[in-house]
Q: What sequence folds into this?
């Protein structure tokens, strides 16, 4: 199900799920006026560059979410692009999972834990904090045409961060990834409470176990299926399920 909004920004759009979000959103019958694909290194994001050559709605923005100076510069660039209409949707997709480390107690280090928390939690909050004025502007302008709200935050989380479900998987302990994704979901719940009154809905979203560089070739779900499901769920988010952890099939997951 396609939805219709004026502007969207996606982090980590160079490859994997982020790139597929870009492809499927641009293929909507009524695509956004502007879709900002943020990535660490635009010069090596060849897939994005190819799409941008034939689609003027797509703007590639440099954004390493670990770097405050990048967040400041990306904000200014996005502000110049969307102007007074603001930003309708921010999809916080960039993520990190060091799979060379099984993440059991004997394997983890302070720096591995910090790196996962920095990218999967703190960086998203810093990006959201910076971009909030643009989301507020979209609310003020009633920018969204079909969404059930005026502005929306999506945080790509994971079932691996669900305290209820994590016991059911046989996968390694993964202190680093699971604890950080649990915090991604908690951050989303807290954001949903803080931003509800402002008219901004927040969706922590599990995309499934997907065949990307991160998910690996044995993963259960293809990238197209995952993202078309994610987009349906994003389009049906409302005041009723803001802050609820959902999967790409539209099932509410226990946190
Ligand atoms: P990939 O490893 O394929 O892609 C990760 C993306 O994140 C890349 O675009 C990468 O950019 C970007 N990224 C990493 N660090 C930063 C950073 N510091 N600043 C900006 N961008 C960064 O992963 P997926 O596409 O599979 O995952 C996307 C999201 O989905 C992640 O949040 C992940 O945790 C989550 N997820 C994935 C699942 C799966 O099975 N695949 C399951 C559940 C959740 P670059 O190209 O520059 O490295």
A:
């Amino acid at each position: 199900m396609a939805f219709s909004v004026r502007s969207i920004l996606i982090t980590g759009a160079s490859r994997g799920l982020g790139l597929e979000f870009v492809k499927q959103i641009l293929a909507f019958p009524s695509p956004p006026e502007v879709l900002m694909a943020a990535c660490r290194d635009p010069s090596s994001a060849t897939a994005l560059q190819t799409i941008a050559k034939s689609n003027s709605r797509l703007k590639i923005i440099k954004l390493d979410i670990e770097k405050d100076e990048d967040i400041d510069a990306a904000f200014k660039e996005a502000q110049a692009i969307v102007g007074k209409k603001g930003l309708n949707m921010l999809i916080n997709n960039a993520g990190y999972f060091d799979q060379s480390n099984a993440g059991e107690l004997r394997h983890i280090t302070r720096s591995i834990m910090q790196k996962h928390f920095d990218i999967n939690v703190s960086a998203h909050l810093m990006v959201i904090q910076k971009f909030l004025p643009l989301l507020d502007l979209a609310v003020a302008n009633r920018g969204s045409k079909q969404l059930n709200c005026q502005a929306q935050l999506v945080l790509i989380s994971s079932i691996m961060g669900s305290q209820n479900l994590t016991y059911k998987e046989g996968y390694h302990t993964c202190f680093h990834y699971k604890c950080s994704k649990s915090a991604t979901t908690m951050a989303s719940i807290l954001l949903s409470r803080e931003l509800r009154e402002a008219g901004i809905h927040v969706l922590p979203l599990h995309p499934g176990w997907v065949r990307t560089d991160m998910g690996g070739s044995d993963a259960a779900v293809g990238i197209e299926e995952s993202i078309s499901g994610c987009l349906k769920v994003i389009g049906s988010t409302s005041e009723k399920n803001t802050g609820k952890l959902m999967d790409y099939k539209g099932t509410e997951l226990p946190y």
Observations:
- The helical segments are 16-26, 46-54, 68-82, 110-140, 175-195, 223-235.
- The mean pLDDT is 93.
- Residues 110-140 form the longest helix (31 residues).
- The longest strand covers residues 200-206.
